[in-house]
Amino acid sequence: MGCNEFINPKSLDQPLEEVLRAKGIEYAFDCIGNQDVLNTALKSLTPWGSLTVIGLGKRGNKVETSVAELLEGRQVAGGYFGNMKPREANQRLVDMMCAGSLKIDSMVTHRMRLEDIGRAFDVLKAGKTIRTVIEF
């Protein structure tokens, strides 16, 4: 029935690994592709728990697990661009946009000139934008 708890590791009184190991988690999502995050999330799963990898990590990153963890039903799945097939999905997205059923304007939070590209990256790094359009 949705997310019961969201854990921000920066606001914890104890190491993240201790918090996760104590309860275990049923579903984990890695959105940044960091190898340490992947492995911590996998080790924190309850039996039959599921890790979904969304973030694009470095080439060669590995997920470390044991056969026993797999036999207990733990699952790892990944998706790139929402598992959409680009050729089919792009056409569908363009059609939706042209029909007005895909509201992309609300996702554009900033518009900046090409000369301000440095500031655009600063806003992105600070997590203060959903989508920035560079105009030139």
CATH class annotation of the largest domain:
Alpha Beta
- Please tell me how large the radius of gyration is: 19 Å
How many distinct beta strands?
A: 5
CATH fold call of the largest domain: Rossmann fold
InterPro entries: ADH-like_C, GroES-like_sf, NAD(P)-bd_dom_sf
GO molecular function: S-(hydroxymethyl)glutathione dehydrogenase [NAD(P)+] activity; zinc ion binding
Keywords: Metal-binding, NAD, Zinc
Protein name: Alcohol dehydrogenase-like C-terminal domain-containing protein
What would you say this structure looks like, in words?
- The chain folds into two domains: 9-83, 3-Layer(aba) Sandwich (Rossmann fold); 103-136, no CATH class.
- It contains five helices and five strands; from the N terminus they run αβαβαβαβαβ.
- Helix 2 links the parallel strand 1 and strand 2.
- Helix 1 runs parallel beside helix 2.
- The strands form two sheets. A three-stranded parallel beta sheet has the order 1-2-3, with helices on one face. A two-stranded parallel sheet has the order 4-5.
- The protein is globular and about 55 Å long.
- The mean pLDDT is 84.
- The relative contact order is 0.10.
- With 136 residues, it is an alpha/beta fold.
